[in-house]
């Protein structure tokens, strides 16, 4: 599979000046940036920065960032499924995970989340891939957002729908563990039917239940 990467650059108004949204960002450029201290949802900022560089170095990996000068204030990651997760079981080279999206607290409500994922799909970059994301309520920042579980779920669903991702059923135990959890998927227009059928087999292990 060809991993199409077409660099995109745009600016958005911020509270104290323009915010740059760009990507996919090359590893060397990403190393020159710093991560905002509040980007700590998954690991400490320094460790997260290292992880983002590692993803950017992967053939299929792509990192889209929002930055205030040289400080990354938001990012979204794309990469192959983790080998320990069921989504890797199909051995599909055209199945890509939207793994994480995070925006620093001080930069929320600026539309950066939507801008980040829109940039990732610009110019048909992912039209030859099935892109999925697994939304788990225990990953959501319910405390700082002030939203309920269902309000946050609605917000995330609207965000993913903005790039054509839709809800897909699955019997994955983690997703089925709570009704707010969900699987969102976008099947690119250039994805062969055989890949869509293979993804269906990965989504369901106990097909007789559905």
Molecular structure report:
The longest helix has 13 residues, at 45-57. Helices cover 29% and strands 26% of the residues. The radius of gyration is 17 Å and the shape is globular. With 210 residues, the protein is α+β, with helices and mostly antiparallel strands. The protein has helices at residues 27-32, 45-57, 112-121, 142-145, 149-161, 173-176, 193-203; strands at 8-13, 18-23, 34-35, 62-68, 71-79, 95-103, 130-135, 166-168, 182-187.
Question: Can I get a quick summary?
Answer:
With 210 residues, this protein is an alpha+beta fold. It has seven helices and nine strands, in the order E-E-H-E-H-E-E-E-H-E-H-H-E-H-E-H.
What best-fitting shape do the alpha-carbon axes yield? globular
User: How would you classify the helix and strand content by structural class?
Assistant: alpha+beta
Count of DSSP H/I helices: 7
Number of strands: 9
Roughly what is the average pLDDT, rounded to an integer?
93
The H/E string reads EEHEHEEEHEHHEHEH
Largest β-sheet summary:
9 strands, mixed
Oligomer state equals single chain
Separation, N- and C-terminal Cα atoms: 32 Å
Helical fraction:
25-40%
Contiguous low-pLDDT stretches (5 residues minimum) are: none
Gyration radius (Cα, Å) is 17 Å
* Beta-strand residue percentage: 25-35%
């Amino acid at each position: 599979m060809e991993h199409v990467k077409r660099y995109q650059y745009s600016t958005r108004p911020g509270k104290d000046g323009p915010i740059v949204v760009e990507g996919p960002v090359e590893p060397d450029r990403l190393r020159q940036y710093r991560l905002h201290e509040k980007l700590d949802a998954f690991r400490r900022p320094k460790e997260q920065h290292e992880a983002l560089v590692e993803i950017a170095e992967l053939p299929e990996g792509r990192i889209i960032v929002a930055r205030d000068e040289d400080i990354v204030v938001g990012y979204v990651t794309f990469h192959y499924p983790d080998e320990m997760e069921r989504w890797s079981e199909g051995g599909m080279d055209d199945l890509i995970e939207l793994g994480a999206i995070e925006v620093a607290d001080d930069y929320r409500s600026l539309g950066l989340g939507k801008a980040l994922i829109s940039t990732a799909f610009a110019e048909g970059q992912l039209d030859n891939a099935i892109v999925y994301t697994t939304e788990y309520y225990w990953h959501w920042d319910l405390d700082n957002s002030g939203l309920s579980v269902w309000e946050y779920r609605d917000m995330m669903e609207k965000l993913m729908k903005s790039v054509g991702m839709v809800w897909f059923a699955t019997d994955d135990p983690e997703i089925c563990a709570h009704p707010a959890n969900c699987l969102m998927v976008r099947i690119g227009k250039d994805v062969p039917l055989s890949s869509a059928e293979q993804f269906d087999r990965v989504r369901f292990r106990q097909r007789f239940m559905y």
